Amino acid sequence: MPDSMRLNYSDFNSEAEITEATEKACDLIEEIYESGKYPRMIVHREYSKHNPTLKGELAQPKAFRWYLLREMRRLLTKKADIEILAKRDRIALNDPGLLSHTDEEEWDITKKKMFLFGPERTDISLDRLTHYTGTDPHDFQRYILFTNYAMHVEVFLEKYPDCVKPFKDGMQMPAYHHRLPNNKGITLINIGVGPSNAKTITDHVCVLRPDAMIMVGHCGGLRNHQEIGDFVLASSYFRDDKVLDELFPIGNPVIPNYLLNLYLKEVLDNHNLKHRIGTVFTTANRNWEFSITNSVHKIHQSRSLAVDMESATLATNGFRYRVPHATLLCVSDKPLHGKPKLSGAAQAFYQNSKELHLQLVIEAIDKVKENYPNGLPNSSIRAFNEPLMESGE
């Protein structure tokens, strides 16, 4: 196999020819990477007035081959030319110089990027995914669900008994993968409790360019007319977790993906389930109820419907890294209304809600697959100067 390749859109007369060519291109990309070099991709776009040529290096191409195939097909269909060649030698993960290539603060936000992440960042992030989840990054699917309850894992295993499981017990954030061809299945990750874990895992998951990330969690209800077991669909977030404040301005609006919310709402309505749509207040303080003056004042000002410890963090990283995201929570307690989370009542609630909660999100994902098989539109979370691999102007 050659060490370089050029795909000219004018050479192809059918979709089948484009598909065959992109498969061969991915084979070459993987071979270059396995040979010890970073593959480089150069895209020439005559149709783009301001950015006709984009360049980028990548790593671990097998882990998101589905994404590369899809985006190259899009580019060729839109009459772009693609060039692939071997670039520089790979940097070992234990090389002291590795981290000098992974500093996001050095991103040039004035330039369009072929890939959001550099190859060094991809290498280290996928290694950490294995460390945290106990699974191979190649098994991750394009729809990612996050939970912090083992009961949701139990339901997932009952529904998908043949899913890929962690290679050993005791992983910090174990992952489970219902694999389908072209990575169209679902991955469930038990991230544990708290915004720090939420940031850590999404820092690395987003490198795989998933089509959607959804938080499937519980929350404290904050409104008089909510009941235990009601659902909350986030339309916005109050970021009181502080975890990403130094990396992402607190004043930037972060909202869920409209289409994900649309399908989640449709599923809730189809099941005739009581729910409310509004702001989710995310805190890093599990015992926020013990700080009434400070916490409750902010909650009232924000008009929040619910309080949790992960949703805003996941959403903010989804926005930062241009991944469509959403949140569906279930009210497990109402601390401000004489219904704190007590062990006995909580266990009964968990048993009654766990199967339905996960099923609702899976049904919404099925609607996404049916209506947007090539991925949800993400223009709302891409800047005008950042098309990633997509063939935007």
Notes on the structure:
By secondary structure, this protein is α/β, with parallel strands linked by helices. The protein folds into two domains: 4-90, amp nucleosidase, domain 1; 123-371, Nucleoside phosphorylase domain (Rossmann fold). It has nine helices and twelve strands. The chain has helices at 15-34, 65-77, 119-133, 150-159, 195-205, 258-270, 292-302, 311-320, 343-371, and strands spanning 4-7, 37-44, 53-57, 81-89, 143-147, 175-178, 186-190, 212-221, 231-240, 275-283, 306-308, 325-333. The strands form two sheets. The chain has a five-stranded mixed β-barrel with strand order 8-11-10-9-12. It has a four-stranded antiparallel beta sheet with strand order 1-4-2-3, with helices on one face. Helix 1 packs across helix 2 (65-77). The chain is globular.
Helix content: 25-40%
- Are there runs of 5+ residues with pLDDT below 50, and where? none
CATH topology of the largest domain: Rossmann fold
List the domain count as a whole number: 2
Task: Give the assembly state of these chains.
Answer: single chain
Q: Choose one word for the global shape.
A: globular
Looking across the biggest beta sheet, what order are the strands in?
8-11-10-9-12
CATH class group of the largest domain: Alpha Beta
CATH architecture of the largest domain: 3-Layer(aba) Sandwich
Question: What is the CATH homology-level superfamily of the largest domain?
Answer: Nucleoside phosphorylase domain
Strand content: 15-25%
**Total count of strands:** 12
Secondary-structure topology with pairs:
Blueprint: E1 4-7, H1 15-34, E2 37-44, E3 53-57, H2 65-77, E4 81-89, H3 119-133, E5 143-147, H4 150-159, E6 175-178, E7 186-190, H5 195-205, E8 212-221, E9 231-240, H6 258-270, E10 275-283, H7 292-302, E11 306-308, H8 311-320, E12 325-333, H9 343-371
Parallel strand pairs: 5-7, 5-8, 8-12, 9-10, 10-11
Antiparallel strand pairs: 1-4, 2-3, 2-4, 6-7, 8-11, 9-12
Helix pairs in contact: 1-2, 3-5, 4-9, 5-8, 6-9
